[in-house]
Specification:
By secondary structure, the protein is of the alpha/beta class. It has 3 domains: about 80 residues, PGBD-like superfamily/PGBD (Muramoyl-pentapeptide Carboxypeptidase, domain 1); about 70 residues, PGBD-like superfamily/PGBD (Muramoyl-pentapeptide Carboxypeptidase, domain 1, Orthogonal Bundle); about 220 residues, 3-Layer(aba) Sandwich (Aminopeptidase). It contains 14 helices and 10 strands. The chain has a 6-stranded mixed β-sheet, with helices on both faces. It has a two-stranded antiparallel sheet with strand order 1-2. The longest helix is centred in the last third of the chain and has 20 residues. It is elongated and about 90 Å long. The relative contact order is 0.09. The structure holds zinc ion. The site of zinc ion has 6 residues, from loops.
């Protein structure tokens, strides 16, 4: 019987439909086991006072209207209650959303792991489908949106990391929330890759260590203009190991670390830009550690802005456990912007105008990060002036930032009464 075909059942009714409801109430423990041992023929049952009390007890526990009547909503919750995660294959069905306790568990797990299935309501809708596919992609499974044995194993492998990962994600979000919708007052560590005796990649007349420093300086100029405190992990002549750079960022209690690199490959055709954030791509390794959801978010925002401004090929964002990403206590992202071994990429990077556009992309991505999810839905180019207007309008409505000459009744501002 599907929830659609259910008829309303109440005290006094009898027959197979009542027997079906009673069987479910036995499974949920709302009907006592002794009730099943009354010698009533299989498939028949009477909706008596005991059944009515059991329905009420179930409705009470599930936050439903407590009326002792089994209508559509009570039936569908009752029907779903028998499912534990893994009992059946879960997938998104457009015409008929699967419902049940297993869907609740699935949604809760996705949320804990930093994916957003929408409301945890036990209904397998489009948002849950999208979150499940993202999870599958993140752990290296085929993102087919089907929760079968393989995906279930990946969830189970992550069992122990859930608390840590969740707390980590919450801490990162809390840091952003506390900072408010602005870049002002934040500390960003820029890490120009390589340096000193290590030139990094070399190709088509370009040297990675010089390029990364040049890009960092262009980014610094723009961020400083927005009130951001920018700190470099190295100067033109000094360089340190990734571990030292991470320790340095930690000592500053920076808000974010951006490591800037250009790539090189023996494969002549390799080209494009990619970003990297902290996380284990291998599901079995994820039991040990965390996944930086903010890092992932910023990595995606940054790459999108850089690709839109430079025309470089989008080589996606990827989780990595490199020392700088792993050892930093704040979100850290590494940008690999183009291949010096590729003639077209090299020509793009050789143009100072492109390097300015990359720097602008960094600033816009940071603003998108700190503006929150609602404002990051649009893709492509966004003018800095638009973002500033948005920030200003958000601030206008914000009691912590009163406009000069505007009275806020009931608000108290130290010194305002003088
Ligand atoms: Zn490099």
């Amino acid at each position: 019987m599907s929830p659609q075909s259910v008829v309303v059942l109440r005290r006094g009714d009898s027959g197979p439909a009542v027997a079906d409801v009673c069987a479910r109430l036995l499974l949920t423990g709302d009907l006592p086991a002794s009730w099943a041992e009354r010698g009533v023929p299989r498939g028949t049952a009477v909706f008596d006072e005991t059944v009515e009390e059991a329905v009420k007890s179930f409705q009470q526990r599930r936050g439903l209207l407590v009326d002792g009547v089994v209508g559509r909503s009570t039936y569908s919750v009752l029907d779903g209650a028998r499912w534990a995660l893994g009992d059946r294959v879960l997938r998104y069905v457009p015409d008929y959303f699967l419902e049940g306790d297993d869907v609740v568990r699935l949604q809760a797990r996705l949320l804990e792991l930093g994916f957003t299935p929408g409301k945890v309501d036990g209904i397998h809708g489009p948002a849950t489908d999208a979150a499940l596919r993202s999870f599958q992609a993140a752990v290296g499974l085929t993102p087919d949106g089907t929760l079968g044995p393989e995906t279930l194993r990946a969830f189970q492998a992550l069992q122990r990391s859930v608390t840590g990962g969740s707390a980590n994600a919450l801490r990162e979000r809390e840091q952003i929330r506390r900072g408010g919708f602005s870049l002002t007052g934040r500390t960003v560590v820029l890490d120009p890759g390589h340096g000193g005796a290590d030139p990094g990649a070399v190709g088509h007349g370009l040297v990675e260590a010089d390029l990364s420093l040049d890009l960092a300086r262009r980014i610094e100029g723009r961020l400083t203009a927005h009130g951001v405190e920018v700190v470099f992990t190295r100067t033109g002549t000094t360089a340190g190991e990734e571990i030292d750079r991470a320790a340095f960022a930690n000592s500053l209690e920076a808000d974010l670390v951006l490591s800037i690199h250009t790539d090189h490959s023996e494969a002549a055709a390799a080209h494009g830009a990619a970003t990297f954030f902290y996380g284990h791509g291998d599901p079995s390794r994820r039991t040990q550690g965390a996944w930086s959801t903010i890092g992932e978010h910023f990595a995606e925002l940054l790459l999108r802005e850089v690709v839109a401004r430079t025309g470089l090929t989008d080589c996606r964002s990827h989780p990595r456990s490199w020392p700088l990403l792993r050892r930093t206590r704040m979100p850290a992202v590494r940008l690999e912007v183009g291949y010096l071994s590729h003639p077209s990429d090299a020509a793009t990077l050789a143009d100072p105008l492109t390097r300015d556009r990359i720097a602008e992309g960094v600033v816009v991505a940071l603003q998108r990060l700190y503006l929150g999810d609602a404002d990051t839905a649009r893709t492509g180019m966004l003018k800095l002036a638009d973002l500033r207007r948005h920030i200003e309008s958000a601030r206008d409505g914000h009691p912590d930032h009163p406009q000069p000459g505007v009275t806020h009744p009931g608000a108290t501002h130290p010194g305002a009464s003088a």
